[in-house]
Amino acid sequence: MVRSLLIRGMLVGLLAGVLAFAFAYAFGEPQVQHAIDFEDLMAAKAGAAHEHALISRGTQRTVGLLIGTVAMGVALGGMFALVFAYAYGRVGSFGVRATSALLALAAYVTITLVPFTKYPASPPSVGNADTIDRRTLLFFAMIAITVLAAIAAGRVRREYAERLGPWNAAIAAGAVFVLVVAAAQLILPAVHETPAGFPADVLYRFRLASLGISATLWLTIGLAFGATAERLVAAQPGRARARRAGAAA
Amino acid sequence: MSEAVAERNAGVVEGPIASPRELMPYAIFAGVVLMMLVYFVGAEEGALSLIGGSSVHELVHDARHLLGFPCH
Ligand SMILES: [Zn+2]
Questions:
Q1: Where does the UniProt annotation place the signal sequence (chain A) (predicted)?
Q2: Which of B36, B39, B66 is nearest to A65 (CA)?
C-alpha cells in the first residue's frame, strides 16, 4: 500500500513538475531575463568582465528549468504521498480526494505562502552571494517553524474540540498558528538585499510568478493524487473486508 | 496493510491505511532520497557543494530562483 502510494505520488509529482514548467516558462522566465539583463548592465557599468556561463542561457531556461521543476515535483509528490499515507484516516474523517486536496492546500500555505511573507523568492541579482549560507538556513528554518506551528495548531483544535466546541477550538488553533508564526517573523533577521535601481515591477512580477508556480505544483499534486489514490484505497483488500464487516453488522 | 490496523477498523469505512511500522522504512529511505533531490535543485553550490564545480547549480538555476530558494 505505502509503496503503491509512493510510486503514484512520484508520478503525479512528475506531471505537476511538467505543468509547473509550462507556467514558469510562460510567466517566470521573462522576469528572470529582465533580472539578468539588469545584472549584466550593472556589471558593464562597473567595468567587470562578462562572466562566461558553463551552461548557456538557452539551455537553462528550457531543459534546465524543466529538470528543476520535474525534480522538485517528484520530490514533493513522493513526500506528499508518505504524509498522506499517515494522515488519511487519522486527521479528520475526510474522504481520499478531500484529504489529498486539503493536505496540498496546507502544504502550499505552510511551505510556500507563509514563509514567503518573510523570505520571498528573489530573481537573479537580488541577493548577495556572500550571505547565501545564512539565507538558506533562515529560509528552511522559516519553513520548518511554519509547518510545526500548523501541526501544533491541528493538535490544539482536536484537543479542545470537545471542551470549547468545534468553532472555538478552530479559532484557538488559528490563534496558536498566527502567534507562533508572528513571533518567528519578529525574531528571525530580515534580509534586505535588493540592489539600488532594481526595477520594482520586475521584482513584483517575478514573485507573483513564483507563487503561481508553487500553486501549480501543489494544485496538481493535491487533485491528481486524490484521484489516483482513491481507486487504490477502494481496491484495498482489508478495506473491502472492513466494508463487508460493516454491512454485516 | 497490517492485520492490526484492519482489525481496529473493521466496520469503519474511514480509517488509517498504513501503520507507523509500515511507513517507517519508506519515510526513512524515500525521505532521504527525495530530500537529496530538493537539495540539488535548491541548495547545491550554496551552503554546501556535494558535486564539484557548479554545473548542477547552473543547469537548474532558473528553477531554483523561481521555486523560491535563496540564491545569489
Ligand atoms: Zn542565482
A1: none
A2: B66
Helix and strand tally (H, E) in chain A?
10, 0
Do residues A139 and B69 make contact, with C-beta atoms less than 8 angstroms apart?
yes
Residue type, B43: A
| CA distance linking residue A8 with residue B49, whole number of Å | 31
Q: Test A132 with B72 for CB contact under 8 angstroms.
A: yes
pLDDT for position B49:
66
Could you tell me the pTM of the whole model? Answer: 0.88
Of A174, A220, A173, A212, the C-alpha closest to A74 is A220
The tens digit of pLDDT for each residue in A21-53 reads 999 999 999 999 999 999 999 888 888 766 667
Could you give the CA distance from residue A18 to residue B9 in angstroms, rounded to a whole number? 38
Interface test with B, best of A7, A39, A82, A225 (most B CBs within 10 A): A82
Task: Indicate the DSSP class of residue A17.
Answer: H
**For residue range A114-130, what is the model confidence (pLDDT) as tens digits?**
999 999 999 999 988 88
Q: Within the 13-42 window of chain B, which residues sit less than 8 Å (CB to CB) from chain A?
A: 13-18, 20, 22-23, 26-27, 30-31, 34-35, 37-38, 40-42
